[in-house]
Amino acid sequence: MEKNKEDDSVLQSSEPSTEIDIPEKKKSRWGWFTSFGGLLLLFKAGKIWAIIKGALLFLKFGKFLTTGLSMILMVVVYTYIYGWKYAIGIVLLLFIHEMGHLTASRQLGINTSLPMFIPFVGAIIQMKEAPKDAKTESIVGIGGPIFGALGALVCLFIGEIFQSTLLLALAYFGFILTVFNLIPAHPLDGGRIVTAISFKLWIIGIPIMVFFSFYFFNPIGILISILAIKKAWEVWKDRDNPYYDTDQGFRFRMGLSYFLLFALSAYYTYNLHEVLNKQ
Questions:
Q1: Collapsing DSSP states into helix, strand and coil, what is residue 117?
Q2: Is the peptide bond before 187 cis (omega within 30 degrees of 0)?
Q3: Which residues pair with 127 in a beta bridge?
């Protein structure tokens, strides 16, 4: 039907009715201008195509610009609070953390968005498809804390060499970020990781999350606590789902990695807190 309508439209515009006298066609005085314009467009065709390609490239890499703009926005906001050097460091450490999730998910063949930065919340990536099992989810979950802890260690190492308070402060931020995200409460990374180890760890993580959220009255923490309780209830009702089946060997390796990473990050968080307080 659409094709017929288009054909009718073409016919009506190309053939006048036979009941109307067709006037004799006159030569347009603007003909020379039209010809010149056509030659000009032909001459400029290369530049016009370059503009079109540029527009297509902008659309193709728009998602990269979105990530970049959100990073810049967060830097600007944090600059007014902490100063531009510390603000840039915070955003870069958050970026490294999220790249850990992105790298793990891409290695597992999961389509994942680029990071989006939200002031006072952090950074997030979105998995455009659900993990096939708890094992996959835990691997993606631990990728962020591993990268984040490595980024903090680099700041610590360089900070100690140059006796830089700024870098030591950034290392402290990186480790405390890792510790917080490893709390075993979904949707934090720790909650996703221990899904493949043991649900019983949520019994420890959720009360800790609730306590600190209300003690420091952190709205984001309170929201995470609510989501964690909701998720725990849903998983408990669906605990026989094969999604949560993992072999004993994997549970041991993931559990060892999780607790070592948590212990290392907690140690350096405490150590750096003491060092920075003395400066």
A1: strand
A2: yes
A3: 112
